[in-house]
Amino acid sequence: MGKPFTSRFRHFFQKMTDDKHMNPDDQPLTDTTAEHTAGEQDFSTDATAPETGSSRAETELADLKDKYLRLAAEFENYKRRTAKERTDLFKTANQELMVALIPVLDDFDRARLHTQGTADPAALQNALDITYNKLSKTLQQKGLTAMDAKGGAFDAELHEAITQIPAPSDELRGKIVDEIEKGYYLGDKVIRHAKVVLGQ
Fold first, then answer.
1. Consecutive H or E run containing 196
2. pTM to 2 decimals?
3. How far, in Å, CA of 135 to CA of 137, rounded?
4. In the chain, what are the domains?
5. What is the rounded distance in angstroms from the CA atom of residue 15 to the CA atom of residue 199?
6. For residues 200 and 168, what is the distance between their CA atoms, to the nearest angstrom?
7. Taking the CA atoms of the chain, what radius of gyration do you get in angstroms?
């Protein structure tokens, strides 16, 4: 059984070589050496490429680290500087106002000395009025403004209702009848709500 198969195979092989007019031994061999050489060359190129990329990545990483350290140092300096400025600001924030109020304090001292031995109520009232007007004017120059709440409509953003009483007139029903404590603005900001009495 093995012989017929072998003979058939030889016959088939012989026919193929006859068609090509070539002996199998005469067929050109592919240059595997060139392929191996090319492969080795490509491999060596690929091997050197990662080294170049690696050195470039290390350089970029070093630059980024340097930039990060510089930014961190600058930020720490900024934090220290602003903290010092904030502390200095807190220490001297009221200095301008205090300097403006010292003359008013001087007037209070003069009024006390001037009215110390007198029983004249007019002299006491006059000294009090002068000092109050000076204080009020000084505070207004610094941006303090009193609210005018009495007789107006209640506004929860500006007023604090203490109590309600029967309205003395129909016009004052649901409005502010009395002002227990004045409210104040500093510029546009409410720094103290007015304490008021509402009419029912």
1. strand 194-199
2. 0.53
3. 5
4. 145-200 (2.30.22.10)
5. 125
6. 9
7. 51
CA distance 199 to 190: 24
From residue 131, give the alpha-carbon distance in Å to each of 7, 124, 137, 189: 138, 11, 10, 26
Cα(80)–Cα(73) distance, integer angstroms: 11
DSSP string, 145-185: EE---TTSB--TTTEEEEEEE--SSGGGTTBEEEEEE--EE
User: How many beta carbons lie within 10 A of that of residue 173, not counting itself?
Assistant: 13
Name which of 109, 96, 105, 183 is nearest 141 in CA terms: 96
Cβ atoms of 124 and 144 closer than 8 Å = no
Model confidence pLDDT, tens digit, residues 153-178: 999 999 999 999 999 888 888 899 99
- CA distances for 28 relative to 19, 34, 106, angstroms: 16, 14, 120
